[in-house]
Amino acid sequence: MGIERPNTERKALAVNLDARRYGSFAEIGAGQEVVRWFFRVGAAAGTIAKSMSAYDMSVSDAIYGQCDRYVCRQRLQDMLDREHALNLERLRESRGDTTAFFAFADTVSARNFHGTNDCHGWMGIRFQAHPRDEDSQIIIHVRMLDTENALQQEALGIVGVNLLYGAFFLNHEPDQLIESLLDNLSTRRIEIDMIEFSGIAFRHVDNRVMSLRLVQLGLSSAAMFSANGEVLQPSEVLYKKPILVERGSFRPLTNVNLDMIKAAQEKFQQEADVNADEVVTLAEITMRNLRVNGDIDLRDFLERVDVLAASGLTVLISDYFEYYRLAAYLSRHTKKKIGITMGAASLIELFDEKYYTKLDGGILESFGRLFKNDLKLYIYPLLDRETGVLKTVENLEVAPELRSLYQYLVDKGEIEQLGNYSPECLATFSREVLLQIQKGDPEWVSHVPAEVANLIQQRGFFGCRRKTESAIASPAVAPVGMQANLISPSLSHAR
């Protein structure tokens, strides 16, 4: 059973009645929906030092500095920085010994009159957990899913109250804080696809785990973070960019994973409508993959993420097991070309009708959704060890009744065989590498990039017997040509 928490009114009142809390509210774009709750419930004079809205762009620029976009993370950060600094400057000497100051801000694009805009917003709070404490901060990005402006404003106000209450009363339990953000709401109304904790109160929080929690709890269907652990907001990273994705388990990341990305990148960047400098490459892990052994093992999750980071990859965690749902998600952020690279074994599974029984149109509907936009599949060959034959697009076996559909997609160029692979990588299968690691067979080192091997040995990942740095053997060199700034790709066949 979940923990019973107070409703929105009681949360706002609890904040107002906490004599330590005092600060300001700055809200742009959907009215002063959050601060309204605190005025409404009473006792607001003990909590609110200032409430303001700077709707005019020139006025906003005069207060917070110029920016290219007004509903973006940078504008939110400027708001939090300035408002919190003003609170400290004006009030610290007079009441700093007994007051924990805060600044709440949001900048939002609610539904316009014509209903043509992307309804989303940035929201955050900078606060002191205790008087005279160092600052802490929480930032979230929300998507508003209601179809009426008034309902969006209402939902925004509730999320804001939840965020304030969570920051003040649940900062020691970040898991509960995240879960509480949609109290008195539902995922049909609000999606939270990014959260970042920082500062003294959250010094032990790993934002990658918090990103995973968003997806695990259903607050979002996907979350993204960079190789250095920075939480990314997907729409800002993917906006109007060509996207290449590889799906995989990455237990561990192997040479074949990198070779698949490299080969697909070369082909993808040659497409007529793709600017090579704009391509965003993503390594994706699905929630189903993370739950393969039941509950999610956070240590296992972080080990996978760390080996991806060691190779400079950005990670996408998604709840989109079906490829057509992944395609729809990516298409929401870009109209540019989308590429998915996978192994021949995964392509065979893609044509298995058992995965589409929930769709009225079955496999035809799924493929209609998958290829609805400008999407292409890049197929990496699979070595049949018994026969020595490579399984490729040309000789892949699909059900007789689907052969015409398959050939149509191949002839149309929606499915392309990768011929620019490294033959020496074909003998690598990640499940075998994992077993070798766990059994202490040193052969595994030759199947993974050098930086990955070092990390696994130094930290004892995946059941590896930890060694001292001086005892680590020099592993094989990773495939040449991988870009250092890859953005976590991963749609791989089970190797």
Describe this structure in words.
It comes from Rubripirellula lacrimiformis. This protein has 495 residues and is α/β, with parallel strands linked by helices. The protein is built from 17 helices and 16 strands. Helix 2 packs across helix 5. The protein has helices at residues 8-16, 33-41, 57-64, 73-95, 149-169, 174-180, 207-216, 234-238, 255-268, 287-290, 298-310, 323-331, 344-350, 362-370, 403-411, 430-439, 450-459, and strands spanning 21-28, 48-52, 100-109, 120-128, 135-144, 190-199, 222-225, 231-232, 243-247, 280-286, 315-318, 338-343, 375-380, 382-383, 390-391, 415-417. It has two domains: 8-205, Maf protein (Alpha-Beta Complex); 221-495, HUPs (Rossmann fold), CATH 3.40.50.620. 45% of the residues are buried. A hairpin with a 5-residue loop joins strand 7 and strand 8. It is globular and about 80 Å long. Residues 469-495 have low confidence and may be disordered. Strands 8-7-11-10-9-12-13-16 form an eight-stranded mixed beta sheet, with helices on both faces. The longest helix is centred in the first third of the chain and has 23 residues, at 73-95.
